[in-house]
Design goal:
two-stranded parallel ribbon, 8 helices, mainly alpha
Length: 165
């Protein structure tokens, strides 16, 4: 298939033959992150004009999934894990361990490419942040968010997510 695609290209821009060739020849890696942590990260990075986390969440809930930004759109609708057979699914919070395995499988030196932070620090920080931000939400917002991300919560093992029942 012709290599006319950019890093931002989406599969929908190619014909079926090209898609099959790409998916068959690439190692497919899906990086997944707890949807509630994705919301927190988006809010903390200032990608929202909302004054509070609660109003940011309400804006997302009001806009719906179809007009959702890539930053908070459910992963199942972005990455289609039921249609594409990913070779690896890497969970945020276990990056160091899982990236080490991927680099080793690729025959690359493991230690030189890994970030300095530890997964334990990341998990602890997001656990604390999640607790603080979750308190800002009404019961209705929590229920609506769980519904908004229901397919992500069913598809991936986010067992410690604040959105899981």
């Amino acid at each position: 298939y012709p290599r006319r695609h950019s890093p931002e290209a989406q599969l929908s821009e190619f014909n079926l033959t090209e898609i099959e060739a790409m998916l068959g020849s690439y190692t497919k890696v899906l990086f997944v992150r707890d949807p509630f942590q994705r919301l927190i990260s988006t809010f903390m990075q200032g990608m929202s004009s909302s004054p509070s986390f609660s109003s940011f969440v309400q804006d997302i809930l009001d806009s719906g999934q179809h007009s959702a930004s890539v930053a908070w759109k459910p992963l199942v609708s972005l990455c289609h894990p039921c249609l594409i057979q990913y070779d690896y699914v890497v969970m945020f919070g276990f990056l160091r361990q899982e990236l080490g395995h991927l680099l080793q499988r690729a025959g690359l030196p493991v230690d030189s490419f890994l970030p300095e932070f530890t997964d334990t620090q990341v998990r602890w920080t997001y656990s604390w942040l999640s607790e603080q931000m979750f308190r800002e939400l009404s019961l209705q917002q929590k229920q609506q968010l769980s519904h908004f991300y229901r397919w992500d919560l069913a598809a991936f093992p986010f067992s410690s997510s604040f959105l899981s029942d």
